[in-house]
Amino acid sequence: MAEVHGTFFSPGEPFVVKAYLHKAQDRIANEAERRVHILQHQYFRRPTGYYERHIVNRDMGYQHVIHDSGVIYGPWLEGVGSRNFPVTRFKGYSIMRKTTRMVQDRAESIAAPVIREMCEALNA
Hints:
With 124 residues, this protein is mainly alpha-helical. It has one domain (13-122). The chain is built from 4 helices and 2 strands. α1 (13-43) runs antiparallel to α4 (95-122).
């Protein structure tokens, strides 16, 4: 692990910090999107590829949003649709909710290398 020391004050500091924090956000969002696809492959019995192709990672500037582009049966697959249990026995896969929990638990370790890079850049 690199040793970080010295002052963090420089004229370009706010821009450097903002750029690296956005980079960390990108890494976390990309990991979340990757995990959604992994869980789809684990749970879907007969995937057609249609739903998978509609999973997108949108950068909204201040946050990333991963969604299914409004696919009509998306809420049913997630288990939050009006046609889920008790209407049918299918309770949904909860892929988005499981991914959210997994990524939140690992966010610090996903972002750690980027934060380390930022500290090294600020101390250069």
